[in-house]
What does this fold into?
Amino acid sequence: MKKIKLLTIILGIVLVTMIAFFGVYVPVQNRMEDKVKDYSYAMDLKGGRNIRLTVDTSTDTKIKDADGNEVTDADNLSDEELAEKGYTKEETASNSQDVLNEDNYKKSKEIIEKRLKALGVDNYVTKLDEETGDILVEIPENDNTDSVVSNLGTTGKFEIVDSSTQEVLMDNTDIKSARVMYGSNSSTTSRGTAVYLDIEFNKDGKDKLKNISSTYTNSSNTTNTTDNTTNTENADNTTSDDSSTETAKKITMKIDDEEIMSTSFDETIETGRLQLSVGTATTDTDTLQNYINQASSMAVVLDNGNMPIKYTVDTNEYILSDVTQDEVNIIAYVFIGLAAIALIVLIIRYRTNGLVNAFSYIGLASLFLLLLRYANVVISIEGIFGIAITLILNYIFVNKLLSKLKKEEKVDKAVINIAFKETYKEFFIRIIPICIAVITFCFMPWEPLSSFGMVMFWGIALIAIYNIAITNLLVRVKASKKESKGGKVKDGKKQAKND
Amino acid sequence: MEKNKQKMTKKSKVLIAIIAIVIIAGIIVTLTAGLNFDLRYRDSKKIELNLGTDFNISDIRQMTNEVMEGEQVIIQKVEVYEDTVSITAKDITDEQKQGLIDKVNEKYGTTLSADSVTIESIPNTRGRDIIKPYIAPFAIATLIILVYMAVRYYKLGIIKTLLKTVIILVVAQAVLLSVMAITRIPIGIVTIPLVITVYLLTLIGLTSYFEKQLTNKNEKEKAGK
It folds into this structure.
């Protein structure tokens, strides 16, 4: 019976090992497919999106009349026609020469890093060419990557200007923070959840907003400004609506020189906050998510200041990791080789007890690799080191346990119990600081480190559970088998003596 | 007993002297020659060749070995179709670019020309940018560990325990980085994992040492009573 028990456990371990290392292949549409879940890899092993942001060298052509006012409807006129009308062409560079310096390049890079953090990118590499100002960004490839990339090229220039004179009334320096807010809306026009971009201004900004909102008032109250809330999506409609009203003065809100809305205020804003509704209230989850993404992007851009230099996205491509599968395999084989040597040492030192524990060790390693796949742990290079450290820790545990058992003359249930208790106590007390570090790393928003933390967390948890369940059982079965064998021999000897 | 103690002190002194020499040598090498950064973190040049077909990295490696003999080269597949190769090296001259294009055209039957392939400059990654994301997590973890150490080993003297912990953690990292500086092992993708490994192993060593001391102290106290 005990022999069967031992064999069952060993067969179970062999099965788990086969699944972990070779997979489970089933025929699917004339080909064999591995049904075991694949590992999730981090950017350093999988590759990522490489983006090159180059300093914008384009020029903007503006046509001005004799008085120096901008003419917007003369784009189609030839040079001669322009000259006839007395218009002049003025070319302005997107980035003037005085802003193109190392300090501004560095500042732009810092702003990009802040945006990446705010957008929840948990692993990135940024490089700055201090001579040309080019910024290289590498980010992980996932569903949000395109949205993140679109935020990187944005300058983030925020302006509230007088609609008629184009005088800048407020800019980025007045913003304290920007965030996304939600609220339920049950107006007659739309029902559901509304998304707002909440811009909070600093002390100066608060005063300026107060002045602006008291100056730029709506005389006929027909603009859609309600309770400090202004609709951004209906910017065009608002303009056309307003044109029919008798609004005295209007402001225009611009982001990256693009007109977001043109409006006036119903009442003086004293709170220093401006809430812009993004889209209309909706109950549709996808639409709502879209609005939230739009608002989040705007909030991130406004919250982290504007870039002193205008950049354009030059290269945007997915590049695979230079760490190839072959190289990962080589590392795995080296580690398997080292583990094999270590297990042989264990067998030589502790004989059958060593052999049983070596089997148990292989089972733990296999189960650990399966656990990492099904627990969705992202494997980075740090994570691979985490796997190695976990296996080293388990080796220390097993070695400690076996040395305790070796000291005993007779290994029975009670002795095994005591040995396990003592080993657990000694081992886990020694690794408490490691556990603290591992748990801390798990919560860090930096993928390579959290990968290491998660790998080690599952590893330590497995060491604790597996050894008490499987190793303990194996050692007990093996000891009781030996005991019964010893008992039988003793009985035989006794019988012979009596005869 | 006394002899053993003397032997231990002598051994400790030798060990401390070796560690000090390694750290000093590491500092000197770092200050004079700097750390040896891996190609991925250094100023480099990159070209991308669109092969329009699936390819083996080992084939491209063979070509780069012939054209850029003895140079470290990073070869990566580009985009989802993996039919473009990105080759990064410390420097790529026009002749080397032409040589690679010729070899690629010959092997894959492509008609790439030197004019259609540009040599891109890749700026370096600053050392401080590499370690920046790790500073706060390590600081937080170490702080919590120090609190734990102070509570667990208060019998050994709180200040003494904390000082020993901090000094040994710092010295272990300094030794690692010094060895890397002296031996010119490149600072690359395995450096941070190595730093983490040394950090954790040092912690195990420290707790084992403190546990032993605590057991001895408890035994002595018991014997005294």
Summary: The longest helix of chain B spans residues 191-224.
